[in-house]
Amino acid sequence: MTESAKYAKIAYDALADKKGENIKIIDISGVSPMADYFIIADGANPNQLQAMCDAVDEALHEAGCQLKQTEGNRNSTWILMDYTDIIVHVFSREDRLFYDLERIWTDGKEISPDEL
Q: 104, 88, 97, 95: which is closest to 24 by C-alpha?
């Protein structure tokens, strides 16, 4: 397992622990130099979105993966967390449907956490 795959699995598990919904892992390593994986999830309300982000950040920090940049804040309906090799997108349900990143990144390969 590569280091970025390990971090993607940790992020996935942290989102799942906070009841993130429709969690997807997209392997973009073959189509983009920006990262190896996108992890996309949505939540029901702003408090859940923030709890999901906090859980990911805490779990990855403990694993030695440092946050490079965050876009969005407690009032945002789309929060992007850039960990260099993995990028975590946490959405409200409505914004996830609107932006539809899965459609934009169809050249990437959707994988299950078991494939990491």
A: 88
The answer to whether the beta carbons of residues 25 and 109 sit under 8 Å apart is: no
Dihedral of alpha carbons 111, 113, 25, 97, sign: positive
Q: DSSP code of 83?
A: -
Separation of alpha carbons 113 and 101, rounded Å: 19
Model confidence pLDDT, tens digit, residues 27-64: 999 999 999 999 999 999 999 999 999 999 999 999 99
Count: domains in the chain: 1
Name residues whose C-beta falls within 8 Å of residue 54's C-beta, 6 or more positions apart in sequence. Answer: none
Q: Which domain holds residue 47?
A: 3-111
The tens digit of pLDDT for each residue in 99-112 reads: 999 999 999 999 99
Is residue 86 in some structural domain?
Answer: yes
The CA-to-CA distance between both ends of the chain, in Å, stands at 7
